[in-house]
C-alpha cells in the first residue's frame, strides 16, 4: 500500500512543480497562447486534486500502526497546495491575467 502512496506523492510533487512553472509563464503570454496555458493549468490542477484524493484513499487502506506517518505526509501535501499559488490565490491570479470566464 505505502508504495502506491509514495508513487502518488511523487507524481503530485512533479505535477505541482510543472504547474508552478507554467503559472510563472502566464503573465508573459498574450491572446490564445495565454488562454491555452491557463486552460492547461486548470486541467493540471484537477489532476493534482485527483492525486490528493488517491493519496487519501491509500492512507485509509494502510494499517493503523503506519497510517499516522502517511496521513501527516498527505496533510502536508494538501497544505502545500492550499498555501501556494496552487490554492485559493489561483483564481485571483487568473483575474490578473485577464482570464475571460467560460473560455
Automatic annotation (TrEMBL):
Q: Where is this region: Disordered?
A: 63-90
Query: Which terms under GO biological process does the entry name?
Result: intracellular protein transport; vesicle-mediated transport
Q: Which Gene3D superfamilies match?
A: t-snare proteins
Question: Coiled-coil stretches, from where to where?
Answer: 31-61
Q: One GO term of the cellular component aspect?
A: cytoplasm
State the InterPro entries in the record.
Answer: SNARE, v-SNARE_N_sf, Vesicle_trsprt_v-SNARE_N
Compartments, as annotated in UniProt = Endomembrane system
Query: How does the record say this protein sits in the membrane?
Result: Single-pass type IV membrane protein
What sequence ranges are listed for the domain Vesicle transport v-SNARE N-terminal? Answer: 1-77
Q: What is this protein called?
A: Vesicle transport through interaction with t-SNAREs 1A
Q: What is the lineage of its organism?
A: Eukaryota, Metazoa, Chordata, Craniata, Vertebrata
Amino acid at each position: 500500500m505505502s508504495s502506491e502512496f509514495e508513487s502518488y506523492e511523487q507524481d503530485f510533487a512533479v505535477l505541482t512543480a510543472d504547474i508552478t512553472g507554467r503559472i510563472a509563464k502566464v503573465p508573459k503570454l498574450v491572446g490564445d497562447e495565454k488562454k491555452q496555458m491557463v486552460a492547461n493549468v486548470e486541467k493540471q490542477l484537477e489532476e493534482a486534486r485527483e492525486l490528493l484524493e488517491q493519496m487519501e484513499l491509500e492512507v485509509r487502506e494502510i494499517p493503523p500502526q503506519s497510517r499516522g506517518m502517511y496521513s501527516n505526509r498527505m496533510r502536508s501535501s494538501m497544505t502545500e497546495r492550499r498555501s501556494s499559488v496552487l490554492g485559493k490565490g489561483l483564481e485571483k491570479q487568473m483575474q490578473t491575467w485577464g482570464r475571460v470566464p467560460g473560455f
